[in-house]
Amino acid sequence: MIIKSKEHIVNNLNYIIRSAVEEDAKELSKVRVQIDGETENMDREAGEAFIDETGFKELINKDSMSSRNIFLVAEVNGKIAGFSRCEGSELKRSGHKVEFGVCVLKEFWGFAIGKNLLAQSIQWADSNHIKKITLNVLETNEKAIKLYEQNGFEIEGILKMDKQLSDGNYYSTIAMGRINDNTLR
């Protein structure tokens, strides 16, 4: 689905959150690899599960046409600083929910880009009668967990020893969900 662009100014940084377009695909491929290498909060290491320009074009087109998906980018001075995606299911039993994921380049941490991508996604979900948003977050990412809780997400489960990080230790993944009470029947 396509949304209307929204401008933000945080700590003197101007950026726009908008729907991804095909022309973003090449840059998204590079940005995703860079982000994966900047933090261990992601599921992947840099270069793993690589999505090339064609793959991103396919995702963008699929998401633009689907009422159950949304692909957002945060743009700073014409460059992508981060992105988020909500993906719904075509299965009837799971059609009421979407899964949220977000990533932001490290140089743009502290400008509420992730927070605003989340807020825009929640607004989209609520206005499109999506009953539940789910996400997974690494237990060490306390800042993200706090942000999600502040936005109505609750811990629904813990996947123990789910990820092995560069220090050789195993860490748990926190499964979280946000239910939109206004859409319940």
From TrEMBL:
**UniProt domain N-acetyltransferase: residue ranges:** 15-181
- Give the source's domain of life in one word: Bacteria
Which SUPFAM superfamilies does its entry note?
Acyl-CoA N-acyltransferases (Nat)
Show the PROSITE patterns listed in the entry: GNAT
Recorded hits in Pfam families, A to Z, give: Acetyltransf_1
InterPro entries in the record: Acyl_CoA_acyltransferase, GNAT_dom
Question: Which Gene3D superfamilies does UniProt cross-reference here?
Answer: 3.40.630.30
For this entry, the protein name equals GNAT family acetyltransferase
In which organism is this protein found? Cytobacillus oceanisediminis
The organism's taxonomic lineage, starting at the top: Bacteria, Bacillati, Bacillota, Bacilli, Bacillales
